[in-house]
Amino acid sequence: MGSRLSSCFALSAFATFASAQNVTVPASLVGVEGGGGTNVPFGSSQSCRLQVIYDAEELPWSGPRVITGILLRADNNTPNTAIAAKGFLDVSVLVSTTDKTAATASATFAANHGTDVTTVINHQMIQLPAQPPLPAGPRPANIPFVFQVPWAYGLTPATGSLPAPRNLLIEIHIHSQPNGLYRVDNLGSCDATRVPYGTQGAACSVPGSPPPVLTSDVSMQAGYPYSWRVEHGAPSLPFLVSLNVTNQGGLFGNPAWPLPYPMFDPQNPQLPSPALAPLLWPAPDCWLFLDPLMFLGGLTDATGQGIVTSTLPAGRNLVGQTFHAQALLMSPTSNPLRFIASNGLGSTICGPLGVTRIHAFYNGTGNPPAAVPTTGQVLAGNGFVLEVM
């Protein structure tokens, strides 16, 4: 009876896990372009052995999960560009859990395999589908690798005294492929979510120019330098970029001065607003969109453009944290206060992510064919963006 109950429980669990919806790996790149498209491994006529290790923190599930296939995304770092179909490729796929991490990945392929390494696709002929031009944003995950046998992540503790699995390894082995390029969505850098907000009136500008605009770098990674840029300022004059991790609440922490807060008295634009009364002078049409926590200073160039750079705090725990910024620029001819302000800008840290790629190309169809490589090049922070089925 106990054996039958265990079997029923296992079948029920399997059905539950198998019915899980597709999820994106790494988890933080749902709806976000990877920022580092690559022709590895599909942009060659050579054979290729490739592994990607995803740290458990990058997986959008915990506990056991049955995986029945993976779907890759074609690259779209150059929007409105078509990608031609490519086929046919002779492909095998292996998966396993592994105690190797993105930081400790070995150049030796076999050293990265876990005890549960399984061949889930064995010498299957596949075609990479054509991709039509699309505007900016990630393409759909429509390059399928359907496993010939399902594989269960996270069941190793049930088979003995093995430790709980942590990290996921996916190995794609291209035994042969025709010539031709085919870029897939890949990490490398990461594409930060950047959201401008707030508007300034026409008077909040250098005379004859539009209001100043604040932009920032595309890739925003914890522990790395990051730059904010301002345009349409007065030439060769100081500016500040104010920063905070929120744009909510009140100016100077006072709820009586809710954000966004005017740099003038809305009832009489020729007077300063109450919070800025000590400055004596107003800046009509200008608004503050965040309560400054710190400032970065710079100097505009002869065209009125400026840049400030700071190294972000390190730590993977900051991935997903949004930093809010706004530029305040000296402009002696704009208003009595002699300062104007830009839009607000929220930029979200997108990396670094716990992903590493190991790969090696070789002539597997030569005469005689080259031996399958046992080692490859290790590239931390690189790897497919994919969906797990």
Descriptive notes:
By secondary structure, the protein is mainly β. It folds into 2 domains: 17-189 and 352-388, no CATH class; 194-348, Immunoglobulin-like. It is 5% helix and 36% strand. It contains 2 helices and 20 strands. The chain has helices spanning 2-18, 109-112; strands at residues 23-25, 47-54, 65-73, 86-98, 118-128, 141-153, 167-176, 194-197, 213-216, 225-231, 238-244, 261-262, 287-288, 294-299, 306-311, 322-330, 339-348, 355-362, 377-380, 386-388. The strands form 5 sheets. It has a 6-stranded antiparallel beta sheet with strand order 5-4-7-2-18-19, with no helix packed on it. A 5-stranded antiparallel beta sheet has the order 8-17-16-11-14, with no helix packed on it. A 4-stranded antiparallel beta sheet has the order 1-20-3-6. A hairpin with an 8-residue loop joins strand 9 and strand 10 (225-231). The two termini are 33 Å apart. 41% of the residues are buried. Residues 1-19 have low confidence and may be disordered.
